[in-house]
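Figure 2 data, in text form.
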Amino acid sequence: MLNSMMNMKNLVTPLTTPSWLKPSGPLHLHQGRSEKVTAYLQQIQKGKIIQPFSCLLVLDEKSFNVIAFSENAPEMLSPVSSNDVVPSVDDPSGLGIGTNVRSLFTEQGAMVLHKALGSNDISLLDRILVQCKTSGEPFYAIVRQATGCLVVDFEPVKLTEFSGTAAQALQCYKLANKAISKIRSLPGGSMEVLCNTVVKELFDLIGYDRVMAYKFHEDVHGEVVVEITRPGLEPSLGMHSPATDIPQASRFLFMKNKLRMIYDCRARSINVVEDEALPFDISLCGSALRASHSCHLQYMVNINTIASLVIAVAVNQNEEEDEVDSEQQEQQQYEEKKKLWGLLICHHESPRYVPFPLRYACEFLAQFFHYKECVIL
């Protein structure tokens, strides 16, 4: 249902992926299919285009110099007098390959960013607020680690939505707090009650036209088990879709990057310019800006969905807990015992951008599926 995009009807997951993605049946029957999934994953991860609502820099993990940038980054982060000139390393006033990222921001923002980039655990950082040196515009810097580099999304802080950057984040969390409190108070035992509550709170929180809970069955086909829509929309509650609509490769990516937003499927994608001397391929699969496959974008147009927000719902597998010797081992076991139960899918019939603090709160709502002791629908 979500991804007719791939048309890869016989795909199964690579043999190196977690157990919940591994194929069943004789190994030789799945060997060729696994290679196709691996190839598809590599194609997605090596994609060189992003969505245009923000910009992206890829940094050397030691020097923090730019080794790749989206074509809209110079205009957004270091505007120059002529829009016809693409800044290069020879232009100290602009942004290009070799630019040190700290030179683009005010002293305070550069210090915070430098400290964050050197952190031992970047995954613990939700966002960094920086201010451009040339324009004074504020941005959320969202850092992701990739092989051999750091990928940083820079999302403009929309001052028009709230009165000030601190107020924006505070307002987002206030909006989410009511939903979180309500979900916390639910008694354990019913996935149906949990799904209905989360979908209702998500619908009220972010204002999309349609919000659904989409469950994967044992044979990995999908079903819309809960739905709320604005008046006048045709319902899809109870609709079943084949497993190929969301291929195993896409499900694997959802477990790595649990929230995916497409703000306008008709918007022109932005190219990423790379240092030609790079000895490795840059992976953008962890970036919120990564552009979607053209087939999926056309699918969205066909179903009259212009914007979407999708959140992975992972639950703990019913396995006996083994004794662990350390907190790190315990966390590793916890990660290995999660499986993709389904997705929270939000559709909208016009472009819709959800600010990063609010997206972060939405992802937090989905985490309650990890902690609630529920009977699966």
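Caption note: The longest strand covers residues 338-348.
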